[in-house]
Each structure stands twice: as C-alpha cells, then as structure tokens.
Amino acid sequence: MKEISKTVEALKPSGIRRFFDLANTMEGVISLGVGEPDFSTPWHVCEEAIQSMADGRTHYTANKGLLELREEIAKFHSEHYNQNYDPKTEILLTVGGSEAIDLSMRALLNPGDEVIVMDPNYVAYEPAIRLAGGVCVPIVLTRENEFKLKADDLKKAITDKTKAMIINYPSNPTGGVMTEADYREIVPIIQESGIYVVSDEIYAELSFDQAFASLSQFEEVRDQILVINGFSKAYAMTGWRLGYILANPTITKALTKIHQYVIMSASTPAQYAAIEALRNGYDDVILMREEYLNRRNLLVNSLNRMGLNTPMPHGTFYVFADIRPYGLSSEEFCNELLNQEKVACVPGDAFGPHGQGFIRISYAYSLNHIKEACVRIEHFLQQFK
Ligand code: PMP
Q1: Would the CB of 199 count as within 6 Å of ligand 1?
Q2: Beta strand 30-31 with 346-347: parallel, antiparallel or unpaired?
Q3: Cα–Cα distance between 322 and 326 in angstroms, integer?
Q4: pLDDT value of position 33
C-alpha cells in the first residue's frame, strides 16, 4: 500500500486526548479536564428540534444555512456586540466552530503563507494551518502580560509572507481577554499590513469582568476580520455541532464554496434549535454564566489559598494555574496529581511550548465536584511544603 499524506502523518495527536485516554483507564478519577459545559441544552431548545422533525422539516437547508437563522444571528450580534453583518452575504452556518476554523484557513491560504498563532492557544489552529499548506509563526504570550497580544510582538511577527493571524479571546486555555483598549493598540498594525485576522469568539458570552470586545467592532479593519462563533459553549450545545462564521461577502463566498462541497449544509434540526436558542434562550445563557462565575471564584480562591498560584481569568471556563514554583514539568505535575490523587487536569504545554509551567483546570463542573477536587489538590500540594 502507498503511504498516507505526509502532512497528516506529521500531525501530533492532541495532548488533551492523550491525557484523557490515560485518565479513563483509572477508577475514581475526578476530572477537571473537559472543555465543554456540564449543563444540558435548555429543554425548550431541544423541543424545537423535536418539533421540526415531527413537522418533516428534515431536508437540506441552503448551503449557508436557514436564512431565518442567519437573520437571528445578525440581530444578536448587532444588539449584543455591535458587530454588523448582512445575513444574506456575510454569514455562513458551519458544523461547529471547528469547521469554521478549517474553512477559514483553506479559503485564505496559498502554500507557504504564514499564519501567526499565539503560544499557548487552542489546539485546533496549527493542524488547520498545516493542512491548508500554511506555516505557523508563533507569538509567545506570557502571564506577566495577562496572556494578551501586544502590539510590539505583533509587529515583529509580521513578514511579507504573513497572510493571517488566529486569535481567541476569551482564551482557551488561559482565560485571558482583550479589552477594547487592548485591541485599539493593534488595529493600526492590522490595517497597515492588510493581513486577515480569524477571531475565534466562541467564548464571547463567557466574559465576566468587562464588556466583550472584538476587532470586528473597529470599522477600519472590519473587512479583514473573520469572526468565528457558535452555539456549543454559550447554549451548552456541543453535541449539536453548530457554529458560524461572519466575514465580508468575498470571503464568505470563498468559505461557502468549500462548505458546499464538503458539508452541503449544517444539521437541519440543530439549525431550528438554534433559532429557538437565539429567540428565547438568553435567560439560560445568563443563568449558566452566573453559575460559571460562582465556580470560578470558588476555584481560583481555593487554589490561591492552598498556595497554587493562579491568575484570575476574566473569561471562559478555564483557569491556567502557574505551577512553576513546584519544579515539575506540566506533564509531570499532571501525571503525579492523577496517580496520587486521581484528579485529571491538562498539562499547559498541550497548548503550545509556552504553556509549559502551567496546567489548565476546567470549571465546567458542579460546585461539589470542584470542592472535592480542591480537597485532593490541597492534599497533593502538601508534599511540596
Ligand atoms: N474554539 C475554541 C477556542 C474551543 O475551545 C472550541 C471547543 N473546545 C472550539 C473552537 C470548537 O467548538 P465547536 O466546534 O464545538 O463549536
């Protein structure tokens, strides 16, 4: 037999998966590892999907998705984030934010184009860049800068070959956010260089301490920005596989070309459910956000009290705890924590080499679950005193 694609052969398996496969072989493990809401999808949203199927609304939709849904998305983004997109030409429904990440790279890149990514950052970006023939150029984010993208670092990373950059705020895994003032610093650089920015805003609704901000709110670069969002996190709909991408009409046309051949259209029942989520689901979003906030406060306060130095994350449902003082690598720390106390977290370097020295802890779990995990973590830390 002939060999498979060299690009695929060279892709590393996700560091998150590798760790969970290990945790799953053990009994009594408490996980703080998973990156999805523990809540069930609100029932009125499920009911709408059931009703759509009972009514026989079970066919393909338009390639871009139901116009009715695109109109709801346009309205939501305009009202909540002051992002204004035309539902007919600037919105494409995708199979989760995940498909949108892949499409954006395939639509933008020629072989050899450089794409700036953050280190650490979400695990799906680099594979998407490589699969589209691009070259990753990392910018190192630091705890000292609250894991924000700084203008000087961006300037240094841009070359003649730079086609795009991928950012994700609120950020998985760091919980970092960028404010409007932070973005203002980098807008002139983006405008002058003409690069595209793929802005993965899937955690937009999980911004806790300040208003959510986006580069697409700056008119001067608006057409260079591709906004990715979706229903997985805000509405607890990970399994429905529905996301979307907002971009100028030329880009949306290019994205749709790929999408129409590879996917055709996103799941129809999921699209009807999403209409209901947007029309009547915002109270659910608020309730879940309040609960995440309680959990964040409990977790971060407990970790700091027991000596595990943890910056306060301003968004998402992750904390990025600083384990550098313990003298173990992230992998060693997580392995020991798992073996000794049966608590599963994710080593920070699963998100890039500069995640080394940190561990990602998810609080998409009940308060009781988090409390029990904290008892075990505190016990684990005693050996370092
Ligand atoms: N972007 C980020 C930053 C994520 O954390 C995730 C899910 N872990 C996704 C995109 C993909 O989400 P989905 O495909 O479920 O919309």
Answers
A1: no
A2: unpaired
A3: 9
A4: 87
Which position has the token pair 């001067």? 220
Q: Give yes or no for residue 15 having a pLDDT over 80.
A: no
Any atom of ligand 1 within 6 Å of the Cβ of 232: yes
Length of the chain, please?
385
Ligand 1 proximity of 14 Cβ (cutoff 6 Å): no
pLDDT at 22 over 80: no
Residue nearest atom 10 of ligand 1, based on CA coordinates: 97
CA dist., res. 161 & res. 132, Å (int): 15
Ligand 1 pocket, residue 217 CB under 6 Å: no
The reported pTM is 0.97
Kindly state if the Cβ of 96 falls inside 6 Å of ligand 1.
yes
**Which runs of consecutive H residues, i.e. helices, occur in 169-323?**
180-193, 249-262, 268-280, 282-305
CA of 98 to the centre of ligand 1 (A): 6
- pLDDT bin (cut points 50, 70, 90) of residue 109 is very high
Q: Quick check: helix, strand or coil at residue 239?
A: helix
Nearest to 351 by CA among 175, 120, 36, 101: 120
- Closest atom, ligand 1, to C-alpha of 203: 3
Distance from the alpha carbon of residue 229 to the mean position of ligand 1, in angstroms: 9
- Helix (H) or strand (E) run with residue 72 in it: helix 67-81
What pLDDT, in 10s, does the model give residues 271-298?
999 999 999 999 999 999 999 999 999 9
> Distance between CA 29 and CA 18 in Å, rounded?
16
